[in-house]
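pinned: reference chain
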Amino acid sequence: MTSPDSTLGSRFLWKAFAGYGLLILLTVAVLGELITDRVRDDLEAELTRELRAAAHCVAGEALQMLRERGDETSRGFGETVLATARSAELRFTLFDGSGQVFADTAVPVDEPAVLAGDDGGWREALSAGEFSGPIGATAGGAAALAFAQRLDDDGVARGVLRASRPRAAVDRPIAAVRDLVLAALAVALLSAFALAFARARAIERPLQRMSAVAQAMAQGDFSHRLSIDDRDAFGELAHALNQLGSVSRDRIDVMATDRSRVLAILGAMVEGVVAVDEDECIVHLNTAAARILDTQSGHAIGRRVWEVTRIREVSDILAQALRTGEERSAQVRVVAPPRDRWVELHASPLHDSDGVVAGAVVVLHDVSDLRRLEAIRRDFVANVSHELKTPITAIRGMVETVLDDPDMDEQHRQSFLRRIREQTGRLATLVVDLLTLSRLEAEGSAHELEVLDLRVPVRESLQALAEPAALRGIEVELEEPDRPVRVLGDLESLRLLASNLLDNAVKYTPQGGQVWLRLRTDADHAILDVVDTGIGIDRKHLDRIFQRFYRVDKARSRELGGTGLGLSIVKHVCATHRGDVSVESEPGRGSTFRVRLPLV
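pinned: its structure tokens
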């Protein structure tokens, strides 16, 4: 198979040769024709001069023959004229005054019939005195060049003497000139081919190298360089190609780096990004967008938006941005298990270098968590307001009652004051719990944790609640290992965790019940179980009891002084210590709260 480079060289060779050859062919043809015409004219002029001279030499004898025309022996030219005709390849023809051939060196004297009928040029000579030029057929049927002169005798035209020579005397040199011109043409064409071949070969090599470098650049390989140091056009072209390769490689490297950065940025974004062309076909879709639209990036590229997602609003807002060339925003609710999601959409058109809309991009922001947090915030504010309002209203009412009744007996006054003290204590406990929960949420995992023995906060919590438990006749037992249970944690937070669990167990266990604190370890975790024989919790409440202000029995919880924040505090402490909390309970059979914290 012929390579593209050899084909390129062959085409260039034949084009170069065709140009040189055509130029030489035209030049030689024109010059050959001019030379041939000039040689013909010169030969004819020279031959005419020779014919004139020969005719003048023979004219005297010819005139004498015409004077003696009565003598039959004088009808043929003499030997001198015949010898002259033979040596110079001439033909002498003598015409009388009437145009009859009187004598001819080419015709024997005894054959007079052959002499008749040839009168080429005699009329012109008879009338004008001379004639020179071509004449018609001669002996053998060949054309000839002739010179004819009138023979006068004392002013009387006796006849015409014509000297002629066959045309071949001129055609032979002309043919030789033509042969010479053809030979020169052949030599010139061969020289042109050799020159074109040498020039094509000299041009072909740099062209082949340039073609190979250009093809490599077209395929994205810009590492090739040309080593052509000539200062001609090829050297300049090679230098330009080298510069093009360097600049293109640098630009492509910059573009690749920028593209990688953009893709990395888009891939790391928590917002979804979808870009489409003017036909609404997806050209880019990042991971977040694939998650929100419930599709895959590789599956979506090249397809229309409405083919890869059931969220009609995404396709609609992109179509609007493409149609109007303006930004568009919307918020859509996506109904999907396990729970609905809210997604904010912001679409913008993409313009090309001419300012024409060439596509659009939409940013999808999943605001479901924000909405849930907003709902939690509203519920929290409402619950806090309600929880604060209840004791404040009670305190205000009892204070106003005491102030408005100065005659109130001491027993009732003391009763009101005790109730005010209870409500202020409840209010103080609520504020403390709120501050504690706020601190835990604000600090997150920013506690300065240290290695400590988990038995220490558990024991301190037990000591703090031993008296309230004893007053209610509740027996509390602690089961712990003999060796330290080392965890990475914050002592105050872990004490708060154990206190809240133990406090709940004591509060919701009837008088005479039992509570167990069981601390143990497995391979990787420390496990604290708080078990009680209390009233228990219905299964439907187990998923929500760790929410703030959630109470299974609101009236009983308020009666016992609960704020509804204890278990929320426990959950946050477990989260900051990379642990977890769970519950098992049945109504009337008590509850078991289990905390798991990683061991050091």
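why pinned: The chain has five domains: 4-172, 220-268, 269-366, 372-443, 450-598. The first helix runs from residue 4 to 67.
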